[in-house]
């Protein structure tokens, strides 16, 4: 039998079962074998009845002492009740609506039971355990537990998997021998067999490692191959070792944190190395990424090049421009700005000064990647808040120069694992420390019933002259979801705070209008801002001390953390209130993580563990397909090994043309499917 054959080729799978399997995306024998257990039941040895623990699944060998059939009563569940015993004690076994089993269990006969014990009025019970006649002993060993849907039982799935394993050919090694050896991978067929039906723990672990490794390797190699950056490993501009950045660092009003120092060190090393820098700097909100960028820009200018920094919004660009102009003026370095809202004349002047080299550092929005913008000698490009830009825009900025160095900055902390996947083509640095003296933002989680006390608190803050953000997840009234829509909330709060200026900001507004409102908030002409999640990242309004988030359960933790980072930016004590409607365990857990921690990396990791990577980091947008066995949240260590191999492969054979990688290439195409255009 071959892997590509349909499942109906197996005995016992007819059209109906095939349809049920289809729901699990299993069509072929290969799909079936790639459908892995979610767990295992250890039935290698028997437990004795007196050692049973409530809720802890156990395997029992016992003899039937008594069979009690409840008399048939209309509308009542019929219960089949057994009393069974071994040398240590006795327990009850219950089956509901299963009178047909009555004849199976005969007093004096021995059976094996596997199930979860429960205690009822002091009696140990098993309800609907798995069972078989002891003399046949077909249930022993480590049994796989598959994540199933309706219409298929564990027993069936196990039988089919066993049959498929026994009859299939063509689970052959497809990775190069040296790679397999280097990574001490076990044989592929052995791996598949042992992941389904392990005899021992060790082969299971080996097999699992192999399959996870394979899947991650296909993923990582596929992503690298599809993103082939022209600059990978290319020679780049050499920034002079003599261009000392100390004068700039000494002119700052504060000392750099250790984390900033080490990231600056990594950047300077790249810039002097002779290879093109492609570096991502991750740093929590407020960790001080801007000054790191400034130092890199200073290095560029002192090495005789121009630098450019692109921000995702006009307001952010303006803030950067104001800060940089001030800081660089003391060093006689001219900073220019280019944004969409400038007049044609203003633009012309900037473009002129840029092409002559009079402007040494340009700050701006997307406007700086327009075709009419040309530099004299651009040596370094920086994009702030990288997650707001696509790879395309990043590259468009690079093309303004002759292969300039690239630095991207993001405040969305990405666990290291995911950074490797999402930014496989970048080196990653982390500023994992906040400047000293940062105040802690007091965070509280409250439920709906205490909403009003929350707004009483807002009132007090506003009376003190502070400002507040209120965030709601959706813009339109939505009865279905029953969430506070921004519009509704805005009306409500306008009435609630008649003495204050209340405004609404939402995603459907024109950019210009959004900028206007944000500017007014910045200037304290607006005191309370109701908004959907579009509050601009990186925005700095030190007078805002309150962040209220409605329906907090609808936001990801990483997002909540981002939003909270909008306050606590000045000298006043700041607060974040999470209003949660849902009272589930997970909702509580999530809220508690926010209350307890202010560490973006920690929060991101928790978020990853709770929700999985797809939802949080838009891994799909980055072209990451669904995985069958690997888990980006759990298999970080393996991923690091995989990354090394993937780098080697792509360096050796960027388009996977050699015979050696035929199998891997097939595997990659299989994994990414049609929605991925591999340039292979
Ligand atoms: P982000 O990483 O969110 O972009 P910023 O670069 O805007 O953070 O920095 C936030 C604030 O911290 C700024 O006001 C900046 O001047 C200040 N800052 C940066 N580094 C330090 C430091 N080492 N010590 C004290 N304050 C710092
Ligand atoms: Mg910033």
UniProtKB/TrEMBL annotation:
Domain Helicase C-terminal intervals: 464-609
Top-rank lineage group of the source organism: Bacteria
Family annotation (SUPFAM superfamilies): Nucleic acid-binding proteins (SSF50249), P-loop containing nucleoside triphosphate hydrolases (SSF52540)
EC primary class: isomerase
Domain Helicase ATP-binding: 270-431
Catalysis: reaction(s): ATP + H2O = ADP + phosphate + H(+); Couples ATP hydrolysis with the unwinding of duplex DNA by translocating in the 3'-5' direction
Keywords tagged on the record: ATP-binding, DNA damage, DNA recombination, DNA repair, DNA-binding, Helicase, Hydrolase, Isomerase, Nucleotide-binding
Biological process (GO), any one: DNA repair
SMART domains, alphabetized: DEXDc (SM00487), HELICc (SM00490)
Gene Ontology molecular function: 3'-5' DNA helicase activity; ATP binding; DNA binding; hydrolase activity
InterPro entries for this protein: ATP-dep_DNA_helicase_RecG, DEAD/DEAH_box_helicase_dom, Helicase_ATP-bd, Helicase_C-like, NA-bd_OB-fold, P-loop_NTPase, RecG/Mfd, RecG_dom3_C
This enzyme's EC code(s): 5.6.2.4
Function: Plays a critical role in recombination and DNA repair. Helps process Holliday junction intermediates to mature products by catalyzing branch migration. Has replication fork regression activity, unwinds stalled or blocked replication forks to make a HJ that can be resolved. Has a DNA unwinding activity characteristic of a DNA helicase with 3'-5' polarity.
PANTHER family according to UniProt: ATP-DEPENDENT DNA HELICASE HOMOLOG RECG, CHLOROPLASTIC
Family: Belongs to the helicase family. RecG subfamily.
Protein name: ATP-dependent DNA helicase RecG
Organism field: Hominibacterium faecale
């Amino acid at each position: 039998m071959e892997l590509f054959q349909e499942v109906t080729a197996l005995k016992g799978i007819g059209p109906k079962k095939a349809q049920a399997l289809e729901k699990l995306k299993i069509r072929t024998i290969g799909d079936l074998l790639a459908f892995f257990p979610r767990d295992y039941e250890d039935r290698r040895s028997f437990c004795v009845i007196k050692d049973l623990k409530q809720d802890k699944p156990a395997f029992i060998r016992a003899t039937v002492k008594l069979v009690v059939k409840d008399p048939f009563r209309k509308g009542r569940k019929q219960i089949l009740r057994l009393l069974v015993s071994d040398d240590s004690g006795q327990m009850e076994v219950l089956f509901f609506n299963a009178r047909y089993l009555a004849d199976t269990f005969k007093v004096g006969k021995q059976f094996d039971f596997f199930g979860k014990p429960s205690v009822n009025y002091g009696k140990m019970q098993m309800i609907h355990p798995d069972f078989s006649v002891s003399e046949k002993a077909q249930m022993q060993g480590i049994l796989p537990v598959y994540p199933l849907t309706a219409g298929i039982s564990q027993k069936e799935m196990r039988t089919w998997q066993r049959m498929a394993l026994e009859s299939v050919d063509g689970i052959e090694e497809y990775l190069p021998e040296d790679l397999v050896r280097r990574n001490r991978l076990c044989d592929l067929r052995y791996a598949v067999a042992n992941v389904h039906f392990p005899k021992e723990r060790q082969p299971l672990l080996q097999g699992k490692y192999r399959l996870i490794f394979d899947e991650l390797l296909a993923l990582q190699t596929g992503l690298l191959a599809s993103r082939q950056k022209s600059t990978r490993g290319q020679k780049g501009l050499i920034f002079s070792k003599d261009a000392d950045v100390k004068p700039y660092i000494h002119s700052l009003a504060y000392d750099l944190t250790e984390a900033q120092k080490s990231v600056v060190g990594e950047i300077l090393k790249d810039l002097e190395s002779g290879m093109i820098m492609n570096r991502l700097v991750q740093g929590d909100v407020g960790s001080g990424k801007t000054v790191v960028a400034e130092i890199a820009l200073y290095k560029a200018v002192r090495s005789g090049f121009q630098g450019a920094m692109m921000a995702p919004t006009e307001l952010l660009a303006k803030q950067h421009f104001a800060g940089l102009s001030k800081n660089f003026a003391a060093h006689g370095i001219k900073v220019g700005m280019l944004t969409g809202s400038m007049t044609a004349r203003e633009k012309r002047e900037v473009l002129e000064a840029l092409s002559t080299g009079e402007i040494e550092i340009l700050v701006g929005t997307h406007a700086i990647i327009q075709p009419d913008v040309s530099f004299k000698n651009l040596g370094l490009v920086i994009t702030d808040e990288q997650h707001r830009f696509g790879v395309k825009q990043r590259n468009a900025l690079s093309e303004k120069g002759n292969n300039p160095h690239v630095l991207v900055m993001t405040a969305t902390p990405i666990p290291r694992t995911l950074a490797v996947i999402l930014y496989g083509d970048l080196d990653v640095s982390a500023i994992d420390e906040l400047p000293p003296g940062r105040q802690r933002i007091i965070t509280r989680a409250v439920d709906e019933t205490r909403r009003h006390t929350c707004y009483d608190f807002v009132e007090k803050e506003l009376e003190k002259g502070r400002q507040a953000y209120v965030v709601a997840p959706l813009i339109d009234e939505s009865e279905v979801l029953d969430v506070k829509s921004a519009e509704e909330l805005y009306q409500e709060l306008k009435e609630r705070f008649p003495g204050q200026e209340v405004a609404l900001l939402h995603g459907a507004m024109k950019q210009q209008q959004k900028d206007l409102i944000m500017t007014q908030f910045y200037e304290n002409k607006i005191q309370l801002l109701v908004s959907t999640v579009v509050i601009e990242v990186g925005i700095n309004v030190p007078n805002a001390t309150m962040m209220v988030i409605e329906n907090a359960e609808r936001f990801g933790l990483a997002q909540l953390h981002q939003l909270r980072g909008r306050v606590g930016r000045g000298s006043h004590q700041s607060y974040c209130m999470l209003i949660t409607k849902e009272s589930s365990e997970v909702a509580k857990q999530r809220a508690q993580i926010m209350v307890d921690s202010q560490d973006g990396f920690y929060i991101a990791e928790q978020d990853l563990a709770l929700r999985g990577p797809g939802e949080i980091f838009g891994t799909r947008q980055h072209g990451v397909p669904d995985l069958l066995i690997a888990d980006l949240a759990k298999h970080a260590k393996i991923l690091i090994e995989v990354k090394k191999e993937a780098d080697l492969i792509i360096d050796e054979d960027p388009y996977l043309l050699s015979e050696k990688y035929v199998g891997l290439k097939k595997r990659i195409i299989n994994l990414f499917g049609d929605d991925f255009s591999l340039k292979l």
